[in-house]
Amino acid sequence: MIEFRDVHKSFGSLEVLKGINLKIEKGQVVTLIGPSGSGKSTILRCMNLLERPTSGQVLIAGKDITAPKTDIQGIRKNIGMVFQHFNLFPHMTVMENMTYAPIRVNKLSKDQAEQKAMELLKLVGLTEKAQSYPGKLSGGQKQRIAIARALAMEPEIMLFDEPTSALDPEMVKEVLEVIKGLAHTGITMALVTHEMGFAREVSDRVCFIDNGLIVEDADPAEFFSHPKSERAQNFLDMVL
Ligand code: ADP
Ligand code: MG
């Protein structure tokens, strides 16, 4: 579903991705972990061309999205992304947030879009907030809405970039539960997180990123108990 072939990315003279090779099969959950500044967000952002690789290829469902004349909007429609900060439209209600793109981009009728939105609000446990504005929600609620909003486009791929890093500790669990509920339902997921217990529990594979490279790509149980590289061992010693 997602394939990187020798992807390099530089910002000016700073090379932040130094040859990433990665394959994520349909329905798999792959977690990227590693030190701050190692390139994790840049890898995720190359998956939907929020960043364009300097060289190498990114394939989505077998299609090279780095080729010239790619229909970027068409690709992005199929890839939901949830960031650390919730990015809800503050001047729209939850329902308006959730139906805006499905109506505009997927051409659903207002009724269809609202029906779909209510199903997803049920999934994230927030039906009673349909008419609320984001400003009235807690951080955990906002993030659950952001996930539901992304799902409203019925993407085949979901990207999560530190979805719980900006939350107060008591709200982390409710958001992780929602993500866990999505894992292994057929949707392909790539996520960056510092929640190591969660990564271990939910991932099919863990990729340890350091200094612009995938240093290890392993089964989570194996990675967390016996990391092969010294760099991963040092990282785990610091975070666990
Ligand atoms: P991570 O998510 O692992 O913390 P990032 O992918 O965000 O790392 O960043 C990797 C490196 O690229 C960092 O040194 C960061 O400062 C740099 N970087 C990221 N985005 C930009 C940008 N738009 N312009 C310049 N440098 C960037
Ligand atoms: Mg990041």
UniProtKB/TrEMBL annotation:
Entry-linked InterPro entries: AAA+_ATPase (IPR003593), ABC_ATPase_HisP-typ (IPR030679), ABC_transporter-like_ATP-bd (IPR003439), ABC_transporter-like_CS (IPR017871), MetN_ABC_transporter-like (IPR050086), P-loop_NTPase (IPR027417)
Chain ranges of the ABC transporter domain: 2-236
Gene3D superfamilies referenced in this protein's UniProt entry, alphabetically: P-loop containing nucleotide triphosphate hydrolases
Gene Ontology molecular-function annotations: ABC-type amino acid transporter activity; ATP binding; ATP hydrolysis activity
Pfam entry (one): ABC_tran
Residue spans crossing the bilayer: none
Coiled coil spans: none
PROSITE patterns named in the record: ABC_TRANSPORTER_1, ABC_TRANSPORTER_2
SUPFAM superfamilies, per database record: P-loop containing nucleoside triphosphate hydrolases
Keywords carried by this UniProt record: ATP-binding, Nucleotide-binding, Transport
Protein name: Amino acid ABC transporter ATP-binding protein
Organism: Brotaphodocola catenula
